[in-house]
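General statements about sequence and structure are easier to judge against a single worked case. For one protein, we set the task of working out the structure tokens from the amino acid sequence alone. The sequence in question and its structure tokens are set out directly beneath this paragraph.
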Amino acid sequence: MRRLSAVSTLALLLAAGAARAQAVDAASVDAAVQRVLPEVVTWRRDFHQHPELGFAETRSAGVIAEHLRSLGLEVRTGVGKTGVIGILRGTRPGRTVALRADMDALPVKEATGLPFASTAIGNYMGNTVPVAHACGHDMHMAMLMGAAEVLAGMKDRIAGTVVFVFQPAEEGAPPGEPKGGAALMIAEGALNDPKPEAIFGLHVVPGRPGSVFYRPEGFMAASDRVDISLKGKQTHGAWPWRGVDVIAVAGQVVETVNTLTARTVDPTTTPTVFTIATINAGVRYNIIPDSAWLAPVLTEAAGEGNVNPATPPTTVAEDFSYFQQVIPGVFYHLGASPDGVDPATSAPNHSPEFSPNEKVLPLGVKTHVLTALRFLEQS
């Protein structure tokens, strides 16, 4: 499991921030977010139409880097292969905070029916596959680009530094790669020069549009990939007794694995899932880890009654927690189900029909901006 550090301290700091005199009021943030919103929608749809798999996000990285440079930020590219770092230095010295968005898409054939749906293809495990933003990372990139523009416009009112981290390969290391995007960016200095004191991130998921949810300490799961290789003895299908039937053995392995967690782990203390998702190269294994905790700044962004600080833990995962092994961090979810659709039945992340609601884009931008501002306002 991933180490969760200094979350309670972060919560106290952010809570204190809400009580202090605030250099930038929420109304000013609201107005700035509305001004940048048309761009955010355009970026989101462009990214959605041009998805790229992990460590192949060259076009996305180029669009992001060009935008950050246009804002006058210091920009580093190629951090973790295709990762992008943007650095905004306020006009006065102060603390340093990081905001993160992931960039990669999935080998999924989109079935949303959107006018800007993906028809892209890519290469995965030696196969030509359809590619789509079936997890919402197109939304995440657009939100953080919007937040960068809003914060850059407030540079003269900012004491401190904001580091924007655009991360590749959140969905895990592609076959043959020893590290996924977060781990590789850290190894290549993403959190150095300047070193943030904390990092914040978000993810769109099925949920009531406009809602924000998280939980203290462990929120999402750790994820580990297990590869099992079986070797049989090939024979004619009519003479199975003359060989070793590896398909039959694979079936026995699946049956055994499906009972492992139910018989070896107490689900009341440690929610655990062990899934065999592909056999004989298939398409892809699943996801990666995370956690979170926050304070009044989310209510300031989303409004009273729209923040749930005690959401149940989930067995999906995220690699944001690699950053949290180095510095304290907070991760939260934005409800983004389509209008009029019950979140319990709306298409989940990673499905061909997953289509997050664009109405939550301004909330995503606003939570990024206010989180950075309120953190930097602490002495």
Observations:
- The CA atoms of residues 54 and 174 lie 7 Å apart.
- The first helix runs from residue 7 to 19.
